[in-house]
Amino acid sequence: MSLIEWKESFSVGVAAVDAEHRDLIELINDLHGLISDGADRDEVVAALGQIFAQISGHFALEERYMRDTKYDEFEAHKGDHENLLDQLRDIMDRVEDDGSYDEVRLAGDLEQWFTVHFRTHDARLHRHAAVQGSQLRT
Description:
The protein is mainly α. It is 76% helix and 0% strand. The chain has one domain: Up-down Bundle (Four Helix Bundle (Hemerythrin (Met), subunit A)). It has 4 helices and no strands. It is elongated and about 50 Å long. It starts with 14 loop residues before the first helix and ends in a 6-residue tail after the last helix.
């Protein structure tokens, strides 16, 4: 069973970005599977590290694009990125320290992230890119 299912409400209307977001959900669901199968702490930390790295890379590309195009909502969008990365670091720290992992909380936090961030910040950014006559390359 998946922790998070893709919903059309997550879509930002850019096929490449939606595919990357689906990949992130797949990584999160892989982590859930590892935990459900009784993976040890090191495996869970490694999976979280992979998720963190992929999300960080995605954010870095978005932020570079926003700076290059002088995007007017850069600070708010970047702040939302930093908030999610902080949440992921906290999760990684808890797993490393004592092996605790609250999958219900993680699922809720991530679903909120996908629902709100994708439909607001990301959708607005991609509308900005269309006006600029370019497409954000992720």
